[in-house]
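Worked example 2:
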Amino acid sequence: MPAIYFYDWKRIVCVMHALSIQPKGLVIAGLSGGAGKSVAAVGLVAALSRRGMRVTPFKKGPDYIDAGWLSGAASSPCYNLDPYLMSSEALLENFSRHGGSGEMVLVEGNRGLYDGVDPEGTYSTAGLAVQLGLPVLLVVNCTKTTRTVAAMVLGCKNLDPAVDIRGVVLNQVGTARHEKLVREAVERYAGVPVLGAFPRLPDVFPQRHLGVTPCAEHGEAREAIAALAEAAERYLDIDGILALTRPSSVAMSEMAAASRPPAVGAPVRIGVIRDAAFQFYYQENLEALAGEGAELVEINSLVDAEVPEIDGLYIGGGFPETNARYLAANGSFRRSLKDRIEAGLPVYAECGGLIYLGEAMVLDGEEFPLVGVFPVRYGLEKRPQAHGYTTLKVDGDNPFYAVGTEIRGHEFRYSRVLDWPGRGEELALAMTRGVGFVGGRDGLVYKNVLALYTHIHAVGVPQWAGALVARAREWRRRV
């Protein structure tokens, strides 16, 4: 199970400022999803870490799984940068605060380089690279193509001259002759150096319905990362890639010095269910809770007999469907959690956490009992039932958000509601973008519980951590 990392960022930044250190950086982007960005990014981070370099990884976009692999490769936290979920100022501050802790920052993009939410590519990896002032290493899948790769690279280079494409990595090359043809075409016609070429490697990242298998669940994650490091050493021109990196235009030391003030109030214990079933947590969310004065207590819903002594609980997303049998079998933990909720324990649950608090999940005709706080039965479909960014407005009473609050988040699920006796107007949030729970709404409320399909990022929803900790303090005083 991955560790939760915390650092004294202000102290680190002050030391680095005194030494006038400004780490260099790079964005690894692709022509499309599946181009091979993760192979290049995880392999490069792992190879540089082997060389003794301190690399701080970032993942662009709403992604937990790639971030987990990058964190494993760096042996340090991976942070997320999302121009949709965060304001420009918050994004730069997040990058500044965490990026100054190493010798290099590496940002893995998402989807294709210019892909965004509209024809202008708003919130794209290209836009993020410009915002951070970092060069781009472009990964191209060369399956069944040769000179056309040069045309695609040239098109990316010319579409927006502000995007600084410094190098190309070829992926899925078939033979030495294939590589030579593509390499010569790209360098001659696009004028961009080719700094590596991966052959058709064995499938390091096994796929399932939500995409790549998470690092925490991969039975041989360390071996997989080691294999990617060796592939990067063998097939990438690492020295050439390092030569194209440069310091970000973001003044890391100065911005990071303006860290959040110390927490005010009595310390509280916030439980975090973190196991094979629930593993989707942004590092920033955990650090935000700690920054508000919470001691985080890891809980395993699959093996723990009962909920420990805590003042609040955070249940993230994950894979309750692949662990339904084990969740159902741990009846003592489920009963303990329901009893705590009935007594008033503050709980914030996202996606998988929402499902876990329901009545049951039905998989292949078999019904698995869950916590039973909400009278909802869930099923699992073969196609995504919701996928993408969300925007919500709070219009109902709930324990954590003031009425009128607007929230940006994201949803990605294959589950659907099979039956629920409630009405849409009972839900606390209205969707202005996205699917939600039912009827364009999200947010089931019961006592001090708010459970919703939308995931939020604490950098984009700064009031979230403070609200959860405040509720936990209220609960602690009452009991």
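The chain has two domains: 23-256, 268-478. The first helix runs from residue 9 to 18.
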